[in-house]
């Protein structure tokens, strides 16, 4: 099990388009992927749950991944956040 944090650094935060891109990544994996603030974690494969987080720029989110492909899932999720969801600045 991986339990780490990740920072939202894109200008608009985890809005609809960014959440959609995160869903594209998370649904490729068999592992359970949860994201949230502190103990309030939601399914990172559910767009409504992601939007309800209200994670704006500067938010630090907790990321919990458990399953057979957890390392690859972590790598791809981190890459997406680092790339600022491929949005123009």
Automatic annotation (TrEMBL):
Cell compartment(s), UniProt: Cytoplasm
PANTHER family tied to this protein: PHOSPHOCARRIER PROTEIN HPR, PHOSPHOCARRIER PROTEIN NPR
InterPro entries reported for this sequence: HPr (IPR050399), HPr-like (IPR000032), HPr-like_sf (IPR035895)
SUPFAM superfamilies per record: HPr-like
NCBIfam families given in the database record: PTS_HPr_family (TIGR01003)
Domain HPr intervals: 1-88
The species this protein was found in: Acinetobacter calcoaceticus
Assigned protein family: Belongs to the HPr family.
Residue stretches in coiled coil: none
Taxonomic lineage of the native organism: Bacteria, Pseudomonadati, Pseudomonadota, Gammaproteobacteria, Moraxellales
UniProt-recorded name of the protein: Phosphocarrier protein NPr/phosphocarrier protein
One Pfam family cited in the UniProt record for this chain: PTS-HPr
UniProt KW keywords: Cytoplasm, Phosphotransferase system
Entry annotated with the keyword tRNA-binding: no
The keyword Ubl conjugation is annotated on this UniProt entry: no
GO biological processes: phosphoenolpyruvate-dependent sugar phosphotransferase system
């Amino acid at each position: 099990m991986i339990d780490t944090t990740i920072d939202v650094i894109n200008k608009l935060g985890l809005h609809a388009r960014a959440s959609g891109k995160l869903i594209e990544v998370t649904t490729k994996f068999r592992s359970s992927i949860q994201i949230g603030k502190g103990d309030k974690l939601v399914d990172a494969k559910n767009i409504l749950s992601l939007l309800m987080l209200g994670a704006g720029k500067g938010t630090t989110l907790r990321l919990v991944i458990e399953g057979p492909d957890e390392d690859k899932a972590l790598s791809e999720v981190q890459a997406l956040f680092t790339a600022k969801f491929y949005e123009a600045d």
